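Lab notebook, bench 4. Still working through the backlog of constructs that have no structural model yet. Next entry is a single chain of 198 residues. Request: give me the structure tokens for it.
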Amino acid sequence: MSNIPNTVEVLEKLRWNAHLCKHSHFRASMKGRNLHVLCGVPIVVVNLFLGSLFFSLINAELPDWTKWSGAALALLAALLGGVQTFFNFKKNYEGHRQVGNEYLAIARECERLIALYFDDILDLEHLSKKISELNTRYSEINQRAEEFIVSDKVYRQAVHIQNQKANREPSLVEQMRNRQAAAQRVAEEVLEIAESSH
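Model written out:
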């Protein structure tokens, strides 16, 4: 049976959820930034090309196909600019990044509090008060994050990343569980040896 108090388990769950939200929003931010660049770079290139081409040929008589090509490129640049403006990729990916950093701050504070508890610097009563404060902050971040939607695909990727990280770097609570399980096994083996020697 685990000797880890429920208060610490609640804090560990909050830490886990905050890390998961951080991964979700950071991944969504990368996707949004890629879309911003995907739309933005062609706009700049097309406009530079058209501007320099038509400026150099301002008095020249151009064949019809070049006029139509120029018009099509100008429409493409306007279309991409409209898509970029409508979806507001830059604001979206910056918002995801900001929310992700706020979740990261919550996760780090949870880790710090768990460490203080295991080092006997913080007791359960104070830890309980801190959890209440963290839950309030977490709820406020969740409300701000509603504007920045994370797709199911990005969320599943974040869960995968979170699970991989948990396997590579067990949390303090998981390390404590492992130590307690090892101590339990040793105690059972000692008891078995003592019983078999009688």
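Notes after review: Residues 6-56 form the longest helix (51 residues). The radius of gyration is 28 Å. Flag for follow-up if needed.
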